[in-house]
Description:
The structure holds two protein chains of two kinds. Chain A is of the alpha+beta class.
Amino acid sequence: MTRKQQRTWFLVGGVGVLALATVLILGALGDSLVYFYSPTELTEKAIDPGAQIRVGGLVEEGSVEKGEGLDVSFVVTDLNESVTVNYNGLLPDLFREGQGVVAEGSFLTDGQFHATKVLAKHDEKYMPKEVADALKEQGKWKADETLIDDSVKKYGIDDSGTNKGYGE
Amino acid sequence: MQLDERIDRLTMQRYANPKAFIAIADRVIPWLKVLTGLAFVGGLYLALFQAPADYQQSETVRIMFVHVPTATMSMMVFAIMTTSSIVALIWGHRVADLFARASAPIGAAFTFIALFSGSFWGRPMWGTWWEWGDARLVSELILLFIYFGYMGIWQTIDDPIKAAKAARITAIVGAVNLPIIKFSVDWWNTLHQPASLVRMDGPAIHESLLWPLFAMWAAFGLFYVTMALIGTKIEILRFQSRARAMRQTEGV
């Protein structure tokens, strides 16, 4: 074997070991790399009251209720399950009904989710306003699909995403 | 010497030869400078004046024209450094080492600009400058530290031959982070949006915003090539003058 071949095999072996180590480490970290849970995942998981978590999904259309001062409550849904979020504070500019949102906080003993921070989640779509309006008019508008539960996706969603008439 | 090794030497030597490299670099650098300038003028005009405001983000969308090209280039440059280091490791080519070395500060600058511009976009759009729990954000920050580590090796190890060996290993090992950055948004839930361009059903960016983005990409890409060639040339000259000085002091 020439030196060049030796070095090549050393390299291939090294990279192979490295790749395997990375896969194992990432696999072991697993859940801790997840930034937020969907409402469906939360109901499956049974989270302890008081545990700090993040829930992400779409703000259900018509669910935003403003209370006194900065009090606000809204429903986060993945169209399969939903969580009611209570929050006291300023909402980000992109916070809109039908749009993605991530709320950080915990479930209290009353079973309600109390957020200490609310962040807007932007999806991957970029377009001028006229195009967005035209798509909505033609009924081709799609909500952020990454926030919709897989069990719902197969029915196909053709509307704003918060339309609950799917699969009927 | 075996035949395949001899053929390798013949084909690779032309590019591995520092003199030939400098001759080629000197010829193309002036053209590249002009092209880079034109691409930036055209790209910035399209991005700042021609591109429409986004339906959601309005004018803030223009940050994307700097953020997306620098972010992809930050990974691309590291991938090029890794490739260069593999070539250097197998064929022992000095110029490949120096090319990787010259690329590192440019890649680090791209990474910093991507993080910085992303933060400035995140504040008004998401409502936060930074989120430690987001896999995309944190893995890109780690890339910046890997760049610093790579540059530090060249700075701290005095013997350039030993420094090159350590730097090659760093560039090859550091490459594991690249797929993590790229696929972080697919593997885990992140605050960061998923890929807009490389998708099963085509780009999710409207044409009117896509062309300015491509123009800015070309500008940053040309900028990198120009700077990397200039940098490599400087590294070669520095390496040669250093070798000459060492020969003199040792009286060889």
